[in-house]
Backbone:
C-alpha cells in the first residue's frame, strides 16, 4: 500500500527542522520513494535561497545603538510609564463600584416606592422627619416642597421617582409612560455602563496585544518615501 | 545583561542594543522595504523596550529576542500605517525594454523578491520574515507574534505558496519578453 503524502505544512515543518526524530524519519522514508514530495521539498528550499536576494543594504542602522543611547533618559521613570497595576485597575474598579452604588440606590428607591404604593410606609412622613426644620420652597406647600426635593435628590435620577415627580409638577403624562419611564432610565444607565466596560476591555486588550505603538513619530513623508533599491 | 538592564543599567541596555540592532533593523527593513523607516522603527522599538523592560519576564536569551521581535514588528506596522505605506509597488516596478547585464539582472531579481514579500499581508509577512531571515523557531515566532503554533504554520504555508506563485509568474513573463 502506498503511503500518504505528508501535508504541505508538515513537509515545510520538516524543511524547517521543526519535526521530532520519529516524524522526521517517517518523512525521510516517504521522500526516498516519492518524486512528487521530493520536488515539493526542493521547491521550498529553492524559495528560501531565492529570498536571500532581498538583502539588507550595507550600513543601514550601523550606529543605531549610539542614537538610542543619546535618547535614553537618566532614569526610566522620566519616560512615560506603561500603565502599572494600580492605574490599570483603577478604571474598572471605579466602574464596578459606581455600578454597585447605582444598583443599590435603585433597589432602595424601588423598595421605598413599593412600600409607599402598598400603603405600608408613608414616605412623605419619613421625609419630613429627615429634613431640617423650616425648609420651605417658594410657591409650593411644605408637602409639595418635600416631595419635590425628594424627587430631585433621590428618585428622579433613578427613575422610580419619575412618576411622583410628574404628579408633583402636574405634567400630563399617560400612566403607561409613567410606568415605562423608570425602566427605560434603568436600561439607558445599564447600556451606558456596559459600553464603558466594553471600551475599557478593548483598550486593555489592545494594550496587551500591541506591545508597542509609536509615541514619538518623527518620520517625515519624504523620508518614508525614499526606497532603497 | 537583560537583568541588569531591568535594574535601570543604561550601559547594559546599550550593549543589548548593540547586540540586537541588526536583528531589529533587518526585521523592520524587510517588513517595510524602506531603510529610513526601518531605522526609525528600530530606534523607537528599543526605546519602547527600555520603557517596558521592568515588566518583561525574563526566561533566557530566546525570550528577550522573541519579545524584542514583537515590539519591532508592531512598531514597524504602526509606522507603515501612519506613513500610509502598505505596498510601495510603484518604487519597485521593473524597467522594461532593457537588455540587462548580469548585475542588473540580479538587482531586478532582488527587487522582484522584495516586491513579492511586501505584497504579502502584514501578518503573513511578519511570520515569514521571522522564520526565513531571522531563523526563529515556530515556538519563538508564536511567542513573538502572540499567535498559536498552528497559526504560525498556516501563515508560513500561505506566504510561501503565494511567493512561489508570484515569483514563478514573474519568471514566466520575463522569459516571454
Residues:
Amino acid at each position: 500500500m502506498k503511503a500518504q503524502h505528508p501535508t504541505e505544512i508538515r513537509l515545510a515543518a520538516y524543511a524547517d527542522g521543526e519535526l521530532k526524530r520519529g516524524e522526521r524519519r517517517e518523512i525521510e522514508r516517504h521522500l526516498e520513494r516519492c518524486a512528487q514530495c521530493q520536488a515539493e521539498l526542493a521547491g521550498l528550499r529553492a524559495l528560501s535561497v531565492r529570498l536571500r536576494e532581498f538583502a539588507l543594504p550595507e550600513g543601514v542602522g550601523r550606529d543605531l545603538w549610539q542614537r538610542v543611547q543619546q535618547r535614553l533618559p537618566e532614569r526610566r521613570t522620566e519616560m512615560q510609564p506603561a500603565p502599572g497595576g494600580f492605574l490599570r485597575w483603577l478604571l474598572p474598579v471605579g466602574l464596578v463600584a459606581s455600578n454597585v452604588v447605582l444598583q443599590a440606590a435603585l433597589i432602595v428607591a424601588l423598595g421605598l416606592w413599593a412600600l409607599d404604593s402598598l400603603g405600608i410606609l408613608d414616605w412623605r412622613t419619613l421625609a419630613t422627619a429627615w429634613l431640617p426644620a423650616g425648609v420651605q420652597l417658594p410657591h409650593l406647600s411644605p408637602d409639595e416642597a418635600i416631595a419635590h426635593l425628594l424627587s430631585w435628590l433621590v428618585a428622579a435620577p433613578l427613575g422610580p421617582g419619575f412618576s411622583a415627580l410628574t404628579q408633583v409638577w402636574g405634567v400630563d403624562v399617560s400612566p403607561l409612560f409613567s410606568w415605562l419611564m423608570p425602566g427605560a432610565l434603568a436600561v439607558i444607565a445599564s447600556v451606558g455602563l456596559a459600553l464603558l466596560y466594553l471600551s475599557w476591555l478593548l483598550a486593555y486588550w489592545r494594550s496587551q496585544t500591541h506591545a508597542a505603538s509609536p509615541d514619538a513619530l518623527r518620520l517625515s513623508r519624504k523620508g518614508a518615501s525614499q526606497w532603497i533599491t | 545583561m537583560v537583568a541588569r538592564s531591568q535594574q535601570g543599567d543604561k550601559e547594559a541596555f546599550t550593549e543589548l542594543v548593540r547586540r540586537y540592532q541588526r536583528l531589529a533593523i533587518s526585521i523592520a527593513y524587510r517588513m517595510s522595504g524602506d531603510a529610513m523607516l526601518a531605522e526609525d522603527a528600530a530606534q523607537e522599538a528599543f526605546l519602547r523596550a527600555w520603557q517596558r523592560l521592568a515588566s518583561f519576564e525574563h526566561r533566557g536569551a530566546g525570550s528577550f529576542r522573541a519579545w524584542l521581535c514583537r515590539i519591532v514588528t508592531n512598531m514597524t506596522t504602526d509606522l507603515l500605517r501612519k506613513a500610509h505605506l502598505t505596498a510601495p509597488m510603484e518604487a519597485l516596478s521593473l524597467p522594461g525594454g532593457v537588455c540587462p547585464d548580469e548585475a542588473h539582472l540580479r538587482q531586478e531579481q532582488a527587487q522582484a523578491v522584495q516586491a513579492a514579500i511586501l505584497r504579502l499581508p502584514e501578518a503573513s509577512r511578519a511570520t515569514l520574515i521571522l522564520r526565513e531571515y531571522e531563523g526563529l523557531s515556530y515556538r519563538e515566532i508564536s511567542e513573538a507574534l502572540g499567535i498559536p503554533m498552528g497559526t504560525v504554520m498556516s501563515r508560513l504555508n500561505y506566504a510561501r505558496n503565494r511567493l512561489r506563485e508570484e515569483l514563478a509568474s514573474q519568471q514566466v513573463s520575463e522569459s516571454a519578453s
